[in-house]
Amino acid sequence: xxxxxxxxxxxxxxxxxxxxxxxxxxxx
Length: 28
Hints:
By secondary structure, this protein is mainly alpha-helical.
């Protein structure tokens, strides 16, 4: 369970990073 949770958190973090990148790209 703990491993699964960590994996999900990591996936969410990656999504946030990609979303931020897209936002910055749009701004630029």
